[in-house]
TrEMBL record:
This is Copper amine oxidase N-terminal domain-containing protein. Keywords: Signal. The keyword Kinase does not apply. Residues 106-196 form the Copper amine oxidase-like N-terminal domain. The keyword Metal-binding does not apply.
């Protein structure tokens, strides 16, 4: 009887230790993730007056934005998109023989694409932190850090406005295609005849 009781006590202690250990480790992982990205957890929003006709920074005024060029400034007006409903579209990378098919979402005058998927297609390393909804993209010397629900991206640690807020959908963080392509050194255009996005390296 004593042996049985001792065995039960030992089993209980082992179970408690194992469960507590896992809990502590999970908490530590979340804490590590939070500390790594805590500088991005402030109120990441650029505000502007709706009555303003343009946003002026460094002497440059951007009165109208285009969906495929990231000006790194706020724009007050945007051109009409080539298409206005969400659909499955191909993105082809010139000179890399790479092509990918994914859903594109037109929203707020921008084409939103799954950030991690597109970044990896362009050869970047992309890590998505599900708890904080942060997407960290690294490509050569460039780094882009997005956070869901904000209109800010950290472009090589510089807080920079997005043309529209990123959002989380179907396990992916969706970001404007202009930002992720231009930010990684590419330019993108829409080919109406082929119904696809064509992406190529910027000439420097």
């Amino acid at each position: 009887m004593k042996k049985k009781r001792i065995s039960l006590i030992l089993a209980f202690l082992v179970t408690c230790t194992f469960t507590f250990g896992l809990s502590v480790r999970a908490d530590d992982d979340n804490e590590h993730e939070y500390k790594k990205h805590e500088k991005y957890n402030d109120d990441d929003r650029y505000e502007y007056d709706d009555e303003d006709e343009s946003y002026n920074t460094n002497g440059e005024v951007y009165e109208k934005g285009t969906w495929n060029i990231w000006t790194r400034e706020l724009v007050m007006e945007k051109e009409v998109l080539p298409f206005s409903t969400s659909k499955l579209v191909n993105l082809k990378v010139v000179d890399m023989n790479k092509e990918l098919n994914f859903y594109v979402i037109p929203k707020d005058g921008e084409f939103f694409v799954p950030g991690k998927t597109v970044a990896q297609l362009l050869g970047a390393k992309a890590t998505f932190y599900k708890t904080s909804k942060i997407l960290d993209i690294q490509y050569q010397e460039n780094e882009l850090v997005f956070r869901s629900g904000t209109n800010v991206v950290y472009d090589n640690n510089v807080k920079t406005p997005l043309p529209a807020s990123s959002f989380y959908l179907n396990e992916e963080l969706y970001v404007p295609i202009s930002v992720i392509t231009n930010g990684l050194g590419y330019v993108v255009e829409w080919q109406e005849d082929n119904q696809m996005f064509l992406c190529q390296l910027l000439i420097k």
